[in-house]
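User: Hey, quick favor. My workstation is busy. Could you predict this chain's structure for me?
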Amino acid sequence: MYQQKNRKKELLEGIKDGIPIAAGYFAVSFSLGIAAKKAGLSALQGFLASAWNNASAGEYVGFVLIAADASYIELAVMTLITNARYFLMSCALSQKLRPETPLWQRLLLGYDVTDEIFGISIAREGYLNPYYSYGAFIPAIPGWAFGTMFGIIAGNVLPPRIVSALSVALYGMFIAIIIPPSKKNKTVAALVILSFAASELATCLPVLSTASDGTRTIILTLAISAAAALISPVKPEDTNDK
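Assistant: No problem, here it is.
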């Protein structure tokens, strides 16, 4: 009986903490819906895509590659690379669970390891009760999925100029993601600038210019991230406070 009450308490706390996240998700995924609309997805397809893939960067890359008529292999590889950070988050969360936590609960927890839900889950004192994270899922997942759906609907109804203006909001989100770490770390700032320059240069080089957008993105992502790992590896002491 106590365990059931504890699960209910954790679930309700998760729902409470997940509501602000859901509101933010709706705003961001609305802009993502504009990108999905440009890729030719219907409102239902956009809803399902966001319901099953709760990842802004990964989803955006997917929509861009779909719009570029990329192959399934390009789509799979690029989505894997873009979402690779969730492997690390999942490993961290696994250390927060009690050893006797069932496998099905671990798998369900891994379904929606987003940056925000990871943040509130990892911040819990002591062992993490999976039901807390499940509670956060309840408002967060619909907020993301419905935001994408309504973004597509708006893209079909609103004038082209307004749709074009709304599509800029998503780029603003990504700029907001890269600026803070760039200000804190000169290496990250240099890599961001290098990425922009390399992306433009790749469209002119003899071999890369003939490849598809998806293939060029994969090659550049692997090359730049590998070079960064070799030149400026992250030391263990640099991650102690994170």
